[in-house]
Amino acid sequence: MSVSKVIIISGPPCTGKTTLAKKVASVFGLPIVSCDSIREILFDIFNCSNLVMFRKDREAGFAIMFNILKLLFTCNQNLIIDSTFWRREVRKELKKLQKQYKFKSLQINLKSSGIVLWDRYQERVASGHRHKGYLDHLRQRELRAKIIKGFSIPPKLKGKTIKVDTTDFTKVDYRGLIKKIKIFLAA
């Protein structure tokens, strides 16, 4: 019986999750499921402008993401998931999905110096490249407390987890990661 093979890229903002997910998707022709991209569409449609709406958009974004995952797992589709996985409920839901659909996972958990991440985050916000729906101006204290830790807890899934320090992007062994992913997908 064939099952999905899932590459899960997790970590705090500014660790390079989306950049890595795009590289992996490009090399292996895999779809990326990202709650952030879903949430940005919801932010735009519902004009997220306050924290109450932000939280509703977040809940809806994860509900949609998990529904998409179920559809892809039903087809035994290999894929990439890109998320911070900050919330325990989200990690638990992914664990339930693995139990139900028996997908194989390779987790790549990114971390960095918290100070470096906070600086990157502030640069991103100042550049105007961060979606306005994240309400950074209303969430500074909350985000700083999370980002300054430099890591996020990956979901507890069956499979291998690779921890990667992205404090200095030039020192990340992207070739080595691609090689490990190739082995995972071929197994």
Describe this structure in words.
The protein has helices at residues 17-28, 35-46, 51-74, 88-101, 114-127, 136-147, 174-186; strands spanning 5-10, 32-34, 79-83, 104-111, 159-165. α1 (17-28) packs across α7 (174-186). The chain starts with a strand and ends with a helix. The protein is α/β, with parallel strands linked by helices. The chain has a five-stranded parallel β-sheet, sandwiched between helices.
| Number of β-strand runs | 5
Specify Rg, calculated over alpha carbons: 16 Å
Indicate the percent of residues in helices.
40-55%
Which structural class best describes the helix and strand composition? alpha/beta
Shape: globular
Keywords:
single chain, 187 residues, alpha/beta, 5-stranded parallel beta sheet, 7 helices, 16% strand
